[in-house]
Design brief:
alpha+beta, globular, Elongation Factor Tu (Ef-tu), domain 3, six-stranded mixed sheet, 20% helix, 2 domains, Gyrase A, domain 2
Amino acid sequence: MAERNSIVLERRSVLVVSGADAGAFLQNLISNDVDRVNARRTIYATLLTPQGKFLHDFMVSAHPRTADAYLIETEAGRVDDLEKRLTMYRLRADVTIEHADPDWAVFVGFGDDAAQALDLEPEEGSAAARTGGVICVDPRLAALGVRAVGPATEMRQLMEGAGFSKTDRSAYEHLRLSLGVPDGSRDILIEKSFPLECNLDDLNAIDYEKGCYVGQELTARTHHRAKIRKRLFPVKSNGPVPAAGTPITVNGKEVGEMRSGDGQQGLALLRIESLRSAEAAGLSLMVDDVEIVPDMPAWLKIDEATDSDTA
């Protein structure tokens, strides 16, 4: 029997960006191609500083009931900041930026055949309008399951009717962490982190073929010419994972730091060359007396020739 679980993502919220200029407005700002968004496609994208550093990440879907409108699913604790930054760029554009209805919620469903249970193609970003909202396969990584954004009661009934059972947040956290997927500003430092060192290009957040957007020049240059010194990696520990921000060392030398974690699973930002050197010498990564073991996810592409700690 298939096992499928779901939870409400209480840390997520939704903005609605609408108006005749909404598509062009977003296209000039965010890192992915808004022209790809339609009733059957959701994308993952970022808003960066002009220097190419992280500000926000979010899912972008077509509004199921309003033409020329988009749903922006993002961090609940920072949604007001995103609204403020988008409004700052609006100028004279025919664009309205507002919060979704207060009864809306974001659900995630994961487990056996999660996409097929909701009649979605099992590929990143596959989407459909349902019961006044939008469902989609996670546009970052299909293994993360499906998301449902819309009126809370209807979305809950939809998930239950598709065979998803309510579970606790820790079950989804373990899945996310084991796959090595960052959770917004819990793992990506605001105005400090570059998207490529947090693997956001491999998670489908960046379109290198689209036109200009805020932070595009440095992001493209890093992709084509520069070396990436650090990367986010999923890690396991031989005890409870240390708190976010805790330094990770090899033989007393700092080589990275912890980010979010749950139980014995976590994410860590690690210097690539230091990690390779430690592996070659048979040395352990440590946080005090806790050993940290990196686990390279299959989707992450590390270029042996260009990713280096010497940049």
